[in-house]
Design goal:
With about 270 residues, the chain is α/β, with parallel strands linked by helices. About 35% of the residues lie in helices and about 20% in strands. Strands 1-2-3-4-5-6 form a 6-stranded mixed β-sheet. Strands 7-8-9-10-11 form a 5-stranded mixed β-sheet. Helix 1 crosses helix 3. The longest helix has 24 residues, at about 205-225. This is MBL fold metallo-hydrolase.
């Protein structure tokens, strides 16, 4: 049985408030990340924080986040899915903080995130890494001082990510994984993974390598299914994902559609 992740303080720089919204797609629940520079003794200082992915419109959760995070300088969103963004407007109201995302429609009183920019708040330096693929607006963050990668849903703490076709696309997703691998390689030592769902993982680079290998394996399986006569995404899912709980087949179908589109265009 896989151990449940309940959040909490994970480093001198980062804490996680795990929302109570478990499910097949959200795993243990949505991880809301609070980033704040430590003081000289390694404790969280009174400096302002950065909050990543406030989660759903869940008042008790949002108030738990605020209790840990206040004062908040800015709220960042890793992508548009409701389990990460639905509560952003309410949390921004509670925290009196702006909201930034790649999608301008999700921003409140602030500009959209830009690939390659560095967000600096009271000692926290967060590097913005565009990572489209799960969705077109997906973004990750590198916290170099903490040797940590905040990956949203691009890389999960357990299992693999759905490429949510048609918004998501496999070609950009593979490119994003390689971009994140290069970012991890640019940090001295091992980089931990702070995902949007699931537990913290000790070696982000190894996880990303596993994701790349898994995608190549799935593409081979899809090609074989097509050669064997599969004519639709549903046919491929029944063959390739036969060992996966059928309750996950609708999500698998989205990824298969992305794989089929990728194979048609490469």
């Amino acid at each position: 049985m896989t151990e449940r992740f309940d959040g909490g303080v994970v480093s001198e720089w980062a804490s996680c408030v795990r929302e109570d919204n478990p499910g097949h797609m959200t795993l243990d629940g949505t991880n809301t990340w609070i980033l704040r520079a430590p003081d000289e003794q390694g404790r969280a200082s009174g400096a302002r924080s950065i909050v990543v992915d406030p989660g759903e419109l869940d008042e008790p959760h949002l108030r738990r986040v605020l209790e840990m995070a206040a004062p908040v300088a800015v709220v960042l969103l890793t992508h548009r899915h409701h389990d990460h963004t639905e509560g952003a407007e309410r949390f921004a109201e509670l925290a009196a903080a702006p909201v930034r995302a790649v999608d301008p429609a999700l921003c409140l009183d602030a500009d959209p995130l830009v690939d390659g920019e560095t967000i600096e708040v009271d000692g926290v330096r967060l590097e913005v890494l565009a990572s489209p693929g799960h969705t077109t607006d997906s973004v990750s963050f590198l916290l170099r001082d903490d040797a940590a990668l905040l990956s949203g849903d691009t890389v999960l703490g357990r299992g693999t990510t759905v490429v949510a076709h048609p918004d998501g696309a496999l070609g950009p997703y593979l490119d994003s994984l390689r971009t994140l691998r290069a970012a991890v390689d640019s940090v001295e030592g091992t980089v931990r993974l702070y995902p949007g769902h699931g537990p913290v993982l000790a070696d982000a680079g190894a996880v990303i390598d596993g994701y790349l290998a898994h995608r190549e394996e799935r593409l081979t399986q899809v090609r074989e299914a097509l050669d064997a006569g599969a004519e639709s995404a549903d046919d491929v899912v029944r063959t390739v994902y036969a060992d996966v709980d059928p309750i996950l087949w609708p999500a698998a179908t989205l990824s298969v559609r992305a794989q089929l589109e990728y194979l048609r265009t490469t």
